[in-house]
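Entry:
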Amino acid sequence: FAYSRLNQITMTVTKQTSQLLIEPIYVVTLDKTVARLTAVFRCTRRGARQGDLTIQMGNWIFQSLRPGSENVTIDTETPELLSPNNGRLTIPVKTLVDRFDVELTATLPLENGVPLASEDVDQSNAQIELQFPTAEQGKPQHATVALQTEETLSVNAVATTDYSEIRLPAELQSKVELELKPLCFRMRNVGPPAPLPVQAVRLERETLVDIQTEIVNVTSQRIRLRQTMNWRVRGVPLSYAQLSVSDIIHESCDLRLEVN
């Protein structure tokens, strides 16, 4: 400003405010007795770039925490972080950029476990409602949930108006075990993540064996055979295989087993 004579300019100085947008991503691995969670909070911050991020853990048991990107620093030695208070986890975050990720892991014991699949299984016992940790600060965006299970479990999503099933995003393929064929969901509306109800049952073992026998050679005193057994096991894993061998083969001690 330029004036021909001395004047006064009145100004008001206020502290710069911080606006925080958070896009949560949850990867859940469901076991018969426990659920394991990897949660990534993708933050976009405008304004002040230092401060705490408080996560409401709910019933989840905190396990570990690390920066989800190279441009953020987390003080992992703070008392608030080492001893979550009343399910609230306070994370001191320092960063010089506007976009950064924070990643944590947690577990959730399943009170009644996953029931064994049967015709008379109680559907209410088979239903599990997954509630997710949420950030207390900022404005939550669309939450994404990837759900994977062990091979011994069968999981189906319960119809809900809060989520829609989507294809697994390429960015999540490094965080899941693709052979388990994870289900992926995305919240339809912006806001805190809603509970995700699923139905889970334990599978019984199903064993299929394909046997192929061929004659290797024939002499005047002996017939040599090769038998190939291809095993396919679904559901509960097979810990051992029991074979029945005829007395003639057993007594001759001319038996060789190979496992590929």
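The chain has three helices and 17 strands.
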